[in-house]
Design goal:
six-stranded parallel β-sheet, six-stranded mixed β-sheet, Rossmann fold, single chain, 16 strands, 2 domains, 14% strand, 41% helix, alpha/beta
């Protein structure tokens, strides 16, 4: 079995590492530095398991020097390319995928789309004659390979003609995992596309629910932690994905919920709309709360722009929304973020100097708490009740 993976973000790289323990995998990314790092056993992204496997395992990885080489003579060509949400079109931007199908596929390989796509996209490609499967990913940032090694399920969408190929692909992935009896579901492509979007919308709903619980407790002078612990002792609710934050963010939840809401344009709904709007309401609340705690000419310190501990991702980070709201009130912002070059940015002044940051910041906002903050905890404002990412 010969695999090719196009795109070396969290999804593509984690899958490449997973499969290459057993199968030859050709990798391709427009960023040649990423490919070279991988072949030098260095991870271009922050993920503990990817770093460990690259260093310690014998992986059957090689790079392609061109896209044509990457897709030639493969059993499966896996596409893991970015599909950001386009506010203008109210849909995922599938242009990166479209380009692949326009110019580089000869119809001999089975293509597996791992990118998140709008419902109906796979069907539109099949109608043009392409052999296409859709297999959604369910990965956490910084834990992508772990979640591939111990997956909750493997889902592949196909038409009747490609059902055998879908089974082969699913079984190939399953035999590379470290978990016994991984559930596999083969279904229609439209259904598989919806599984991805409904899953992330539910997770966003859960984040929004516990954030609104925290908003209520905060305003009423109640102990958020006690309420959540009591609520989550009900096994139907469970003690997971219940830690308050400044709002949901990151690679998937913001864009997937907006896409889902767009899909409901002609479908009656209340909950889907509320999931999207509640995240804005939460950020409004946090910003007002912070603004009420500072005096004129005081500086608000921002501890890290990343969404999670150990992450290098700033995309749609909830703290960015808080900063934007405070900037509208002309609040002075100082940001401690070692991953960005020091100096002035659109979000405020970046510093790497911890002493300068702690001295000049009158209040410090932290979406997620860190041991480093212990020395200045009297200045810290956070809603991180349980001090964990989820």
């Amino acid at each position: 079995m010969r695999f090719s993976i196009i795109g070396l973000g969290y999804v593509g790289l984690s899958l490449a590492v997973l499969l290459s323990e057993r199968y030859p995998v050709t990798i391709y990314d427009t960023n040649s530095e990423k490919m070279n790092k991988v072949l030098k056993k260095q991870s271009p992204i922050q993920d503990v398991y990817i770093e460990k496997y690259l260093k310690e395992k014998k992986l059957l990885l090689k790079k392609a020097d061109s896209l044509e080489e990457a897709v030639h003579d493969k059993d499966f060509v896996i596409l893991a390319l970015p599909t950001d949400y386009d506010v203008q079109t109210q849909s995922f931007d599938t242009s990166a995928l479209d380009e692949i199908f326009k110019t580089n596929l000869d119809g001999t390989s089975t293509v597996v789309i791992k990118s998140t796509i709008p419902p109906g996209y796979t069907q539109s490609l099949r109608e043009k004659g392409f052999r296409v499967l859709f297999s959604p990913e369910f990965l956490r940032e910084t834990h992508a390979l772990y979640d591939n090694l111990f997956p909750s399920r493997i889902i592949v969408g196909c038409d009747d003609e490609l059902k055998e190929q879908a089974q082969i692909f699913a079984e190939s992935v399953r035999e590379c995992t470290c978990k016994e009896n991984v559930p596999v579901e083969i279904m229609g492509t439209g259904e598989a596309e919806c599984v991805k979007l409904f899953s992330n919308t539910y997770l966003a709903l859960r984040v929004a629910f516990f954030n609104e619980l925290d908003t209520y407790a905060d305003l009423k002078g109640l102990d958020t932690g006690s309420i959540i612990r009591g609520v989550c002792l009900d096994p139907r609710i469970g003690n997971f994905y219940n830690n308050p934050s400044f709002g949901y963010g990151g690679y998937c939840l913001p864009k997937d919920t907006k896409q889902m809401l767009a899909n409901y344009r002609d479908v009656p709904n209340d909950i889907i709309q509320a999931v999207v709007s509640s995240n804005q309401t939460r950020k409004d609340f946090i910003a007002k709360r912070v603004y009420s705690k500072i005096q004129a000419n005081q500086t608000v310190g921002i501890y890290r722009l990343t969404m999670k501990k150990g992450s290098d991702n700033f995309r749609s980070s909830s703290i960015l929304g808080i900063i934007q709201r405070l900037q509208k009130e002309k609040v002075s912002i100082l940001i401690y973020e070692p991953l960005i070059t020091e100096g002035r940015t659109e979000y405020g002044m970046i510093t790497h100097n911890w002493n300068t940051f702690t001295r000049e910041a009158d209040i410090v906002l932290a979406n997620r708490y860190d041991e480093q903050l212990e020395r200045i905890k009297e200045k810290v404002y956070t809603r991180d009740i349980f001090q964990r990412d989820e």
